[in-house]
Amino acid sequence: xxxxxxxxxxxxxxxxxxxxxxxxxxxxxxxxxxxxxxxxxxxxxxxxxxxxxxxxxxxxxxxxxxxxxxxxxxxxxxxxxxxxxxxxxxxxxxxxxxxxxxxxxxxxxxxxxxxxxxxxxxxxxxxxxxxxxxxxxxxxxxxxxxxxxxxxxxxxxxxxxxxxxxxxxxxxxxxxxxxxxxxxxxxxxxxxxxxxxxxxxxxxxxxxxxxxxxxxxxxxxxxxxxxxxxxxxxxxxxxxxxxxxxxxxxxxxxxxxxxxxxxxxxxxxxxxxxxxxxxxxxxxxxxxxxxxxxxxxxx
Length: 299
Ligand code: ASP
Known about the structure:
The chain is α+β, with helices and mostly antiparallel strands.
């Protein structure tokens, strides 16, 4: 079925750390509404870059996910945030890592991309940059951060538990973009940084493919992450197989993960090998789908 002649596509994830038996109705409702809003922007001709930034900003601000407001503290007792964004056409990219005290790390990542000659700023340098450019600060960290829906105290100190948010999009001009943001894994050591802010690991976009990863960052990095999927895809491996090969490496190394990806042909894939991944996808050719666990008939 063709909804429109203009071609666009979008996928969102709310993390591959879904726990079997937990009720994700509120998360799925939120993903459905957000995907609908983002689809309207793409149908209206907005750029993939703007749409992934808008989507991830909302996912960070709402407190339902382990990113932005829903992030858990590290073992030293404070929240640090990682994010990255990439725009396919010129492979422009920006990221922040180990950032404290800002509402939307993804907006700052875009600032790094557009306002500096660098790709990644970390810690106090990233915070100084964000302050100079007047990104919104968290005024009262003690009251700002929320424990994401259903997460238990035990999970907060269990280093296997995790969650992240991400978005990939193809716009009507044929441009691809990807964005990913996280509070990291629970129980992380002070100073720990995972795959999310690393271009080529947590996030990738070029002329052919846009990718956002979620899962145990240490394993995603060691498995080659997003860029290894892009290379497989460009060498002729089908999209889902290319992703599953990287996910297989993650599993072999002892972790689990999930990926959302869109190609220049508007093909969407959302595989994972954790218990579940909160996700939504829609395109000019595909009705909106939202799920957390396995659904009959595919992703
Ligand atoms: N990949 C993120 C990290 O390792 C966590 C996640 O996606 O759940 O920081």
